Amino acid sequence: MTTADVHTLTGAYTLDAVTDLERAAFTRHLAECSVCEGEVAEFRATAAKLGLAMTTAPAARLRSRVLTEITATRQLPPSITTGPRPRRWRKRVTVAMAAVAAAAALLAGGIGIGALQSPSTPSVQVALPAPDVVTLGAPGDPGGSAKVTFSRQRGEAVIATDALPALDGGHAYQVWLIGRRGAQSAGLLHSGSGTVTAALPSDVDRIGITTEPATGSPQPTTPAVVRLPIS
Q1: In a domain, 71, yes or no
Q2: How far apart are CA 12 and CA 39, in angstroms?
Q3: CB 128: neighbour CB atoms within 10 A?
Q4: Which domain holds residue 145?
């Protein structure tokens, strides 16, 4: 379990050093935060400059050496199959081409890869990064907001808060995972904008955020400032 200010993820996001859920949550945050958007653009420009700074020009003789090797290296002849190809092979090619065309048409129409899967293709499902990821949001009381991005398949959740009212040094926001077994702490936020990443038990059907002492509480002691049903 980790807790971090969402605004500090700009560098990790730029270098692709975040989890799939953190990436999904930060991407949504990025659309609403011009400061982070500017930092990401600056980080990307810096990374590009660093990459260019490390490049070196090839030796002048390299081109001539490559051309010499090409003329001296025997090339293998193409493999030619004589006679008509089996009908089964042609059928497979036709089906494959049709599948590619259908996938391209669906993607062009705005349907994601996850929507193309079915229970009959488990190996493809496993290869996809959490196809069941869902993001939900709710306003804070008396201000700010929070979002949860979660995957039941992976059993993970990222809770991100934005502009919740500032607290004094003796208090913090505590995130709770609430289900049939009661409330369990997912982490503390010491500012109004931050993220908490937590394992998501299968019985949890809502997220709550309360104001607690800075060191946290074993159970909620105040009314929730944010309620996020995820059932």
Answers
A1: no
A2: 11
A3: 15
A4: 1-54+129-231
